[in-house]
């Protein structure tokens, strides 16, 4: 018996994404169209639409559908914009389905970002947004990343304005930390 992935995508949006206040119809429509199962390793396709993070490569995880939807909605993507997707294969496909021009960074060195980007998204947790990612924001640029220290993380939106870069929290979540971005051990009383 084969899975009906189109039906699973519909159920995912209706049961995980929309109830989590993802109201952007372009994001909902794109998530209904993009095949998450194509991004997970063979033998794990049954996890593609689960309310769970899915490891697609060692130390790299696709976020829960709810978290991707909320992260992208915080960015307010617009068709025609350029975007950089850092370790974010599913988010990249969703943004492309919306009409953005997406460049992917998914190699060994995720810290080095060059150029100026109106939109940057990372589909994994880091302890704090690397300075190079923030520096790569174009004027009026937006960066969505999950910062996690300890057990709980917080999705953050960084915005570059005329007076500099500001940040605000979007929502709480707890995805795994990307390999190479683990918290440095330190002395604590």
CATH structural fold name:
Rossmann fold
| Structural class designation | alpha/beta
CATH architecture: 3-Layer(aba) Sandwich
Order of helices and strands: HHEEHEHEEHEEE
Cross-sheet strand order for the largest sheet: 4-3-5-6-7-8
Q: What is the domain total for the residues? A: 1
What does this structure look like?
The chain is of the alpha/beta class and 189 residues long. It has a single domain (5-173), classed as Rossmann fold. It has five helices and eight strands. The chain has helices at residues 5-17, 25-33, 65-75, 89-98, 131-135; strands at 54-57, 60-62, 82-86, 101-105, 117-126, 137-149, 152-161, 164-173. Strands 4-3-5-6-7-8 form a six-stranded mixed sheet. A hairpin with a 2-residue loop joins strand 7 (152-161) and strand 8. Helix 1 runs antiparallel to helix 2 (25-33), helix 1 crosses helix 3 and helix 2 crosses helix 4. The longest helix has 13 residues, at 5-17. It is globular and about 50 Å long. The mean pLDDT is 94.
Q: Could you provide a short overview of the structure?
A:
With 189 residues, this protein is α/β, with parallel strands linked by helices. Helices cover 25% and strands 32% of the residues. The protein has a 6-stranded mixed beta sheet with strand order 4-3-5-6-7-8. Strands 1-2 form a two-stranded antiparallel ribbon.
Write the SSE topology.
Blueprint: H1 5-17, H2 25-33, E1 54-57, E2 60-62, H3 65-75, E3 82-86, H4 89-98, E4 101-105, E5 117-126, H5 131-135, E6 137-149, E7 152-161, E8 164-173
Parallel strand pairs: 3-4, 3-5, 5-6
Antiparallel strand pairs: 1-2, 6-7, 7-8
Helix pairs in contact: 1-2, 1-3, 2-4
